[in-house]
Amino acid sequence: MYFGNVKRLEWSFLPAHFLNYLEQALTIAANHEETGRYNIDGDNVFCVLMTPETEPKELRKTEIHRDYLDIQLLLEGEETFGYSIETPQPLLDKPEYTNDVLLFNEVGNESYISLRANDFIIFYPGESHRPQCATREPMAIKKIVVKVHKSMI
Predict the structure, then answer these.
(1) pTM more than 0.85
(2) Which InterPro entries match (predicted)?
């Protein structure tokens, strides 16, 4: 997991290609209002512009990805993420990834981090995270999630 702010990228020490993906995502968000998928490099790197509602953490599922890294960039509002280094217990006896997402009810020793506009958080494949948790009260947020295939890391 990595946490940063797009207004302080000079202090981020991220690889140049990650900085490029963030810049492209910001350009896409500035030039498009319609939610949905926008390609940066086909299935290797793409982003999803979304406007979800945050919810109480008890209503949100923990997730991990097998093939894609997430760069979650908050554009408007406040969002809290749960995360843990412990391996969560799957919802099913035979876990199956759907669209590169494996969902879990809960995870042990969960910690939380809250994001505000211009903050971003990076989760690598296999790192558990619980997105879209309400920081105080549920609210509408705007975010763009950059999906980077593990072969591009």
Answers:
(1) yes
(2) NanQ/TabA/YiaL (IPR004375), NanQ/TabA/YiaL_sf (IPR037012)
